[in-house]
Structures are given as structure tokens and as C-alpha cells.
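The instructor's notes for this session suggest beginning with a concrete chain rather than abstract definitions. Hand out the sequence below and ask the class to guess, before any prediction is shown, which regions might be ordered.
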Amino acid sequence: MLHQMKRLRIPGWFGRSERQKMMDEHIARSGTAYFGFREMARAEKNKAVQAHFNRVAAKYDFMNSLLSFGIHHFWKRKAVRILDLRPGQQVLDVCGGTGDLSVYAARRIGPDGDVFVYDMNRRMMEAGRSRPGNRHYRRQLHYVQGDAERLCFADNRFEAAMVGFGIRNLTHLKKGFSEMYRVLKPGGKVMCLEFSRPVNPLFRALYDGYSFYFMPLLGSLLAGSGNSYSCLSETIRMFATPDELKAILGAVGFESVSYKRLTNGIAAIHLGRKPFSFPAEPSKDKA
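After discussion, reveal the predicted structure:
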């Protein structure tokens, strides 16, 4: 492992043309998708993502806290706070995994509200369900296994939908956001917390070294899968910038879309709202 690290060359951050390979339009034209730097038939991506999280599920929470020095908890609390949830609301946590965001949401909506932890990976949800923090909210947390690109809920069902560090793993990004738009009530809010490119060049260089040297090493030693943590860094470099993601949310139909960078841009919180009403169709002149 150490010998491989000595030969490792840290990849640069990709330009817009490379990032477009993650977009729905390119995937539809090419029939291929990326998971990290691996190109594959688009039908195979779900299998690759499933295998990835099967490998890391048992130690996912421990590794997240270790590798982020605990900062990810601050990011998630802030992201849920920005949603401004109210008691009794219905909330959907897409790609909810072990349920960190769901627990923070459950605290805000109280015993009369519900949070649905929605994820394709059963092992991740089972790892979260067994945590003491999740068990404390067992009456409010509901676990549903399913595909984020085909949500199993009716239209106009939720007051809020959120996704934390999971949207970049979908094969069709816009389709995932469109499904969240569909199940939100008019006026409902969407929140997306995702990794991004650090702003300061010096900080970015340190972050790059940490991402491609130490994260895979610790992943190999402590979680038994260095490749899984290399893949994490790769997916971040392939993903949309905050401005590009803001444009995607707007194109899907969300209004008042904004974002806030966190920790020099390592992560960003995006917030949008489903319109309360839809524009009337233009009247047609009578012949």
C-alpha cells in the first residue's frame, strides 16, 4: 500500500467538459456513466454503488467522523437548521444511509412529525437503525429501501426533502432532483448538502494530498477498503460546481435557489423551494 502511495499522482480538478460526463444528457447520449474515474455502462452504476456501500456500511459512521475530524456533524446540523423545519412536518431524507440528517430533522419536527430514511442500500440503513441515536427516534424514523430516481411516494407528499452527500452517486442527477420536486408539496423545500472544491488554492492543495494519500491509507487500515475511499475523492472531482448545481435545481423547477459554502468550500448547502403556484398557460387567440 505504501509503495503504491509513493507512485500516486494527485489528479487535478476537472473542467466543465469533464464534469458534463456526470450529467443526464451525456449519459443518455453515450449510454455510459461514471462512478469515480471508472466509466461503465449506465445500467451497471447502481450495482457499483451498491457494492461500494456494502463494503463500507459497518464502519461508515466511524470513518466519516474520523476522516472529517467530526466536522461533518456541524455541516449536517447547519444544513437541517437552514431548512427551518416545523413541528409535525413530513420530511424525506433521500440517500439517507445511516440517518444522520434524519435524526437532526426528527429533533426539529417533534413527535407529531415523520422522517422517511430512503436508501437503496439495506446494510447502510440497518447500520443506522441499530445506533442509539436512531433508536431514540424510532417512532419518527421510517426506513424505506428504494431507488432515488423512482421514489415510491405520491405527488405533493412532503414539506421538505433533503439529500446529504448522496446525490452525486445517482446515475441520473436531474431525474433524482425531479423526483424530489414531484413529491414535495407546493411551497416545500429541498436541501442538498454536497462536497465541493475548496476555494483557497493552498487549502485545496492540502485537501488534495489528504484526500488521495491519507484517506485511502486509513480506509485500508481501518475499514479494509482503501479503494472505496479513493473512489470518494474521485466522485467529488467529477461532480458539479455549486453554480452548476444551482442551475440544475432551477432547471428542474425549483425557485429561490441559493447555496452556502462551508469550511472554505469543502462542502456546500443548496436550498430551493417548489413554487406555491404554477404559471397559467398562455391564452390562445380565437380564430
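Then share the key points. The two ends are 76 Å apart (CA to CA). The domain at 17-273 is CATH 3.40.50.150 (Rossmann fold).
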